[in-house]
Amino acid sequence: MYDSSTDRILPSSERTLVSLDGTLYFSYVTKEDETSYACSLSLSSTQSGHYGPFFRLNVPVSQEAPFAPRIDSNQPQVFPENPVIGSTVYLECFAYGNPIPIYKWTRVDGRRVSKKAVLMQHGRILRFDHAEVTDTGRYKCSAGNSLGVAVREVTLSIRAPPVIVVPLSDLLLGSDTEFALECPLSTMDSHSTVEWFKDAKPIVPLLMPSDQRRRFHVHQTKLYVNSTVISDTGVYQCVVSNEIGLAYSSAYVQVQDSPPAFPRQSMPRKIFAVNGSSVSIPCLYHASPRGHSRWADAGGAKLPHKGRVRDQHGVLVVENILHDDGGYFFCTAHNRHGKAHYQVELVVVDKAQVRVESTDSAATPDEMNVSCSVEVDCGNASECPEAFFKWTFDNRSLNSLPGLRFKTKVSASEKISKPQRISCYSLYGEDSVDVMPRPSVPAPLALKVEQDQNVVRLAWRRPNTHRDIRNHAVSGEADTSGGYLVELRTKVDRQWRPAPREVVAESESQRVTLSDLAPNTLYQFRVRSVDSTTMGDPSVPTTWVKTPPAPPTEAVAGLKWKALDNTTLLVEWEPIETSHQSGEHLRYRLSWSLDKEAEQDAASHERNFLAHYVDTKTPQAVVHLNATNECRMVVFSVRPINDQGAGLVSTDTVAFMNHQGEPRRVSFTNATVLNSSHVSFSWEWEKTSHCGGSHAVQLTCTSTSSEDGQLSVTISAEFSEWILGGLSANTNYECVLRSVNGEENYGDYSSPIEITTKQQPPSEAPSINKLSLRTTESDLGYTTVIEWSAIPFPQGNTTDPEKGYKIFVYVSETASEAVVLTMPIARLSNPDRPSARLDGLRLMYMYTIQVRSLSSSYWNLFCYALDISVAA
């Protein structure tokens, strides 16, 4: 603030800077700066502020004379002093000078300043949002004007949680050995605190007994344990922490004594080697402690450590293999707890013959089939070693696959006139073959197109280098003796396809006539030359040719109708030409006639339009008829029409209707009582005449014990079953059905059916009172006993198996399906204090248990769920 006013805030400018630490800087002062100033401090955390007393700045002489920049002794600065990763960091720099200096920030190490860094306050502040560890480094502030440049540096260190460079890994070792665990940290984490734990208990050698203290040693990030014992087995964890956060890593160390053993599949029983090659066979086994291994020949003599056939630190090495080297070798592994043997058979085979065969059965001149195979006599096919093929094309490597065949495609740019070499390499040898690409079939020239209404004629000229073609195939399938292949595409579908046989009307040596093409469609054509084995390049496509529009070619299908009332019909059908129209302004004409008119039309052998019609653009229409008391038959059909004419007429559809209709009769087929308030009913309709119909069915149930106990519901005729609710418990009802056609046109009542609802279920939910863990009678295990509060059940048969309780047991709190146990009242030893024994619950598992009462197949509410953890 300035001028002794709390309302006047000093604005930021190129000459002045209010530092983030509250210091007010002037690049140079003038007489206008001579006034009173005060510092204002606002606290966002308490939403309050304070300001100090005003003081006066005296400027005896203005600094009008130019001078070179000079950076303040307290600059540059870092705010906050100890920034952490993810926070906002400010680098501030201020220099005195006239003219006002221009600021520039760079990194001393030559790297570019982060793109996320933002310059503020005329370049004097460099802000880092969401600071990262990569922003750490030394920064240089340069302030310059026309008289010179001032430079000073500042170091930015971003504090971050510690990072363990290499996590711990599990160990398996024997007793009376030693091991070391290390949690290496990055250099910036050198001041972090490292703690070690075993099975969640801290490892502090000073607090251990004297005999244990000598075995454990912690040095910086390493833990050393010597003279191991079986009890050292456990989970070891290092926890690294600093002021920002922590990191941890765990490993399972198992101290176990076991003699050597050769696991299955660890080593092959038989190894194949090519005569003249070299082989190395390691001796792989499990043992704790590790122990030693030696190789011996079939006679039991130990192999030397030097020579062509030798034992090199537990690895059998055979160089320049001879046929005499074949046979059995034995690996013996031993430690202080025992020893084990393993037998390996070395089979020496001659260099296999590799055959490369080229075939000329390719479909185009751009393709050629080359196969590579090897023959190895290995006795059992399952023991044959993989050949590992590798291919090269003119000394350029192709992708290799571990199989007997490989397929690749050579691009057209690699067509050359000289032979090309294809080589096949395998584990057993190599071979190659020189191939010559077949000459391509030249494309037809000067393709012309003529159009006459719905007919398109194509003509072309044969190139001079064209081979003799006796049969000219112009269908979708090229004739094996040679010819031409006509291809076409549309403006909508740009993919070239062979012309179907049905559109080829005439074909000559170099001319084709096409008909029956889709109307109102843009076509483009081209021609290929083909022979018995190859297909030539296509000719230049023709210009776009549009076929003339025509009447609709599709017939309407899927007619269906629905009576909206006694005089109105809704007719619907499937639309046609949804993706492409044969002509402009497609519409539909719905025609209909009444029964007498239909008889007159039937007397004629010709198909005439029906007596009445209506045009519509949508695949539906509403037909309004005069009211009548008689049964009336309506015959209707639909014909598509566009500006070019009418299409095919759909199949006639017949509808029957009258003024009121004849209500259909309905009768019960089944009634099932579900519980105390719901009953399931099903029914069926009796056959009737064409004009008979019903819109709905009315279901009415009347209580035989009370006058006002009646329940009625009207159901759509589309349904044949219904569950009726809202009935009274333990009550007799008489139920009837009758059909409904219109508002007041009811049919006759069906034969009544009597039902009796079940008793009212319990209104209270049981509560679990006690849960205990007890030993079994044989003292060989544990069982869980659960007790809950008794629920007053309605009076009735106490031996009813559907009256009692059910217990739901969920394994863990996330289980979706429960194990359900049924406890009828008749099976309870004391119904006033119900309890049950739950066998089979496993120790240290979390279970959720619920109890629910049941009365005549009707459930009440669950009790509150109880989560338990079974412990010994």
TrEMBL record:
Domain of life: Eukaryota
KW Signal (keyword) present: no
CDD domains xref list: FN3
Domain Fibronectin type-III: from-to ranges: 441-550, 662-760
Transmembrane portions of the chain: none
Keyword set, alphabetical order: Disulfide bond, Repeat
Domain Ig-like stretches: 76-157, 161-254, 260-347
UniProt cross-references to SMART domains, sorted A to Z: FN3, IG, IGc2
GO biological process, one term: axon guidance
GO cellular component terms given for this protein: axon; plasma membrane
Pfam families named in the record: fn3, ig, Ig_3
PANTHER family, sorted: CONTACTIN (PTHR44170:SF6), PROTEIN SIDEKICK (PTHR44170)
Protein name in the entry: Immunoglobulin domain protein
